Amino acid sequence: RPYILRSCRFGVEAPGFATRLGNIIPSWFSPTRETEPDDMEWMRNCGVLQRTEEGGTVREVMSPLVLQWWSSLHGESPLAHHHYECYSADALLSDTSPRVIEHVTCHFEAV
């Protein structure tokens, strides 16, 4: 995954990237706060946001790889902890692992 993050040029190794992203992500997931327009533009420029358009509706989604990387660095926050646990459990899913999906669902709902 570190290779993918570097080769996709998200900028994870740039000075200040982790700190700035760490400050932005909580507002991205907050139902009561909006992400600042300059932060949105920064994430677009870094490639952190993936943009899709369908039927005139534009949606921007944060890259799951970047979220997983962020959650591994900021596990002390509840938001990061639940992301990290969700991604960890998701990696274990297979056709014969019904109990793992409960773990994914629990942490997904917490986020």
List keywords for this structure.
111 residues, mainly alpha, two-stranded antiparallel ribbon, 6 helices, 2 strands, 59% helix, globular
> What would you call the shape?
globular
Strand order of the biggest β-sheet: 1-2
Indicate the proportion of strand residues. Answer: 5-15%
Structural class: mainly alpha
Distance, first to last CA: 22 Å
Number of helices: 6
List the helices and strands and how they pair.
Layout: H1 2-7, H2 17-29, H3 37-46, E1 49-54, E2 57-62, H4 64-73, H5 78-90, H6 98-110
Helix pairs in contact: 4-5, 5-6
Structural notes for this entry:
This protein has 111 residues and is mainly alpha-helical. Helix content is 59%, strand content 11%. The chain is built from six helices and two strands. The chain has helices spanning 2-7, 17-29, 37-46, 64-73, 78-90, 98-110; strands at 49-54, 57-62. It has a two-stranded antiparallel sheet with strand order 1-2. Strand 1 and strand 2 (57-62) form a beta hairpin. Helix 4 crosses helix 5 and helix 5 runs antiparallel to helix 6 (98-110). The chain is globular. The two termini are 22 Å apart. The relative contact order is 0.13. The model has no long low-confidence stretch (mean pLDDT 77).
